[in-house]
Specification:
The structure is a single chain. Helix content is 31%, strand content 15%. It contains 16 helices and 18 strands. The chain has helices at residues 19-31, 168-174, 186-190, 208-223, 241-251, 286-299, 308-314, 317-321, 343-349, 367-377, 383-393, 396-405, 414-439, 490-509, 542-545, 548-551, and strands at 2-3, 47-48, 58-60, 65-67, 69-70, 74-81, 104-106, 132-138, 146-152, 177-181, 229-239, 261-265, 284-285, 333-334, 357-362, 444-449, 528-533, 536-541. β5 (69-70) and β6 form a beta hairpin. The chain starts with a strand and ends with a helix.
Length: 555
């Protein structure tokens, strides 16, 4: 008997859904904008067991047998449940083991996306039965166990799904096993409320999405060998909110031992609130998350402390989804429970999981956000609105210094000027501070993705300035994506091949360097990082490029 997966057909503190949701949806879907990949044909084979060659599309997991499919490049297994559906009494509870199944389960289609509103390219979903993962392996390999790379998707902790990232090229070219889980998002994954503490929650509330990711990592430890992977050689990697998740696992005590290496791409680990509206997806103190949770519960008619938990669990998913991206948005809660210590404090004091790390950003991070905001409000940034925004972000004396340092006349438009300010202030210099902190404790390889002609989205209008190496631009160099055209020129294709070799070699050894690759020096407090640009891969002075000397003097 072959079972089918279930798929649904939909797939500064004001608490008001409205324009903020529209802006937030554009921002967070554009953060990592990817779309469902095009998958290949199927083939059948005999059951694969640990220690045997693994070209088979039938694999025995600890919960039952699954049948995937073959493409020209890879073996694909999609929609494998790694935890029980987090619905009814398990809504806002720690993830539970998935139930076993008889016969052979069909694993040729992605599982349901976790509940989320419709985004720029994200399909909506109201289905809480969503804790599924995908496994991509090379089509054929030898008997050796391959490194496992666990991809944690982003999109601001309110949108996205594992199925948006086609890892066939990465798995085949890098000779690695790629696992990509869904996890609870928005109010379902990150609501912090005293009434939800303990009980079904092993820890305090507010970090159920991170607990889902930990459950997926435990699934990898139990099942990687059956897919040809080495459960003792796991690299976690993610971008934007996914990178923030990786930051959190570096700090979370319960994540220790579940991975041996980490890659942080455009992660907001110690973020700065660069916009008066959502999303705010970096870790925030539990007190702020709980206050926000209490306010949301009151708005939903669940203010009675004694009955708040039952009241919230009785609400329809459609009603709850509306509150995922208002106020302070969604993201990890710091303090007790899963995340007792903030990443910045942990990195400064060495109280984190010491594993080799790759960390980096894109050179022009904020150009994506500026373009998304301008699209959402249907207004371009003007010199006057640029000045007003700078005065919103900084106190009067500092604001005037910033405007003098970044005059509109130096850029193609006021929107590009604003993007440069926020990129340098909120991305370039903070990641350099984090590089310095991490390198004091563990091997670190730092980079900046710098392809100034990286292809732009097919679903988002181009702004009135060059898009450059925007936030998320590097993803199309690692994954295949139908919304991002992917590398076009020979130089871009070579950059993609180099990046895949760096990432996969790091997964093998903890060092991205390999034969025939441009040498990547570990970070040595000289502020030089590896610039990843089409046609030129070489060290660059990140402090100079992002004017960190100036920003060090700004409050």
């Amino acid at each position: 008997m072959e079972q089918q997966n279930h798929h649904d057909g939909s797939s500064r503190r004001r608490l008001r859904p409205g324009l903020s949701r529209r802006v937030g949806a554009l921002l967070t879907t554009a953060v990592l904008a990817s779309s469902a990949a095009l998958w290949g044909g199927t083939a059948e084979g005999a059951t694969s067991t640990p220690g045997t060659p693994y070209a088979s599309t039938v694999v025995a997991t600890d919960a039952g047998v699954v049948r995937g499919r073959l493409t020209a490049e890879a073996r694909l297994f999609q929609g494998i449940p790694y935890a029980a559906p987090p619905e009814h009494k398990l809504r806002w509870a720690s993830p539970q083991r998935a139930a076993s199944w008889p016969g052979i389960r069909d694993a040729t289609k992605p599982g349901n996306r976790c509940p989320q509103a419709e985004g720029l390219i994200d399909e909506p979903s109201i289905t809480e039965d969503c804790l599924y993962l995908n496994v991509t392996t090379p089509r054929a390999s030898g008997a050796r166990k391959l490194p496992v790379m666990v991809w944690i998707h982003g999109n601001g902790f309110i949108n996205g799904a594992a199925s948006l990232y086609d890892a066939q090229r990465l798995a085949n070219s890098g000779q690695v096993v790629v696992v990509s889980p869904n996890y609870r998002l928005g109010i379902f994954g990150f609501l912090a409320h005293p009434a939800l503490d303990h009980g079904g929650a092993r820890h305090l509330s507010g970090n159920f999405g991170l607990e889902d990711q930990q459950a997926a990592l435990r699934w990898v430890r139990r099942n990687a060998a059956a897919f040809g992977g080495d459960p003792g050689n796991v690299t976690i990697f993610g971008e934007s909110a996914g990178g923030t998740s990786v930051c959190s696992h570096l700090v979370a005590p319960a994540s220790k031992g579940l991975f041996q290496k980490a890659i942080l791409q455009s992660a907001e680990c110690t973020g700065r609130n660069w916009s008066p509206g959502p999303p705010t997806w970096f870790p925030l103190p539990r007190s702020e998350r709980e206050q926000h949770g209490l306010e949301v519960a009151a708005e939903l008619g669940c203010s009675d402390p004694a009955g708040a938990a039952a009241c919230l669990r009785d609400l329809d998913p459609e009603e709850l989804i509306k509150w995922s991206d208002v106020g302070i948005g969604s993201g990890p809660a710091v303090g007790g429970g899963v995340l007792p210590l903030s990443p910045d404090r942990a990195f400064a004091t060495g109280r984190f999981n010491h594993v080799p790390i790759i960390q980096g950003i894109t050179r022009d991070e904020h150009r994506l956000f500026t373009a998304a905001i301008e699209t959402a409000i249907q207004q371009v940034t003007t010199p006057a609105s640029y000045r007003a925004e700078i005065h919103t972000l900084f106190d009067q004396p500092d604001a005037e210094r910033v405007l003098a340092r970044y005059p509109v006349s130096k850029f193609h438009s006021a929107g590009e000027a604003l993007s440069a300010v926020v990129t340098d202030w909120a991305w370039g210099c903070p990641v350099l501070d984090r590089d310095r902190a991490l390198a004091a404790w563990t091997p670190l390889y730092a980079y900046e993705f710098a392809d100034e002609t990286a292809p732009w989205f097919s679903t988002l209008p181009k702004p009135n300035f060059p898009t450059g190496a925007f936030h998320g631009a590097e993803l199309q160099y690692l994954f295949t994506d139908a919304q991002l055209p992917g590398p076009r020129t020979p130089a871009q294709k070579q950059l993609s091949a180099t990046m895949i070799r760096y990432w996969s070699q790091f997964a093998y050894t903890g060092n991205p360097n390999g034969p025939g690759q441009p040498r990547w020096q570990p970070f040595r407090h000289k502020d030089h990082v590896q610039s990843l640009a089409a046609g030129e891969i070489a060290p660059v002075d990140l402090a100079k490029e992002h004017q960190c000397g100036f920003w060090g003097s700004i409050a």
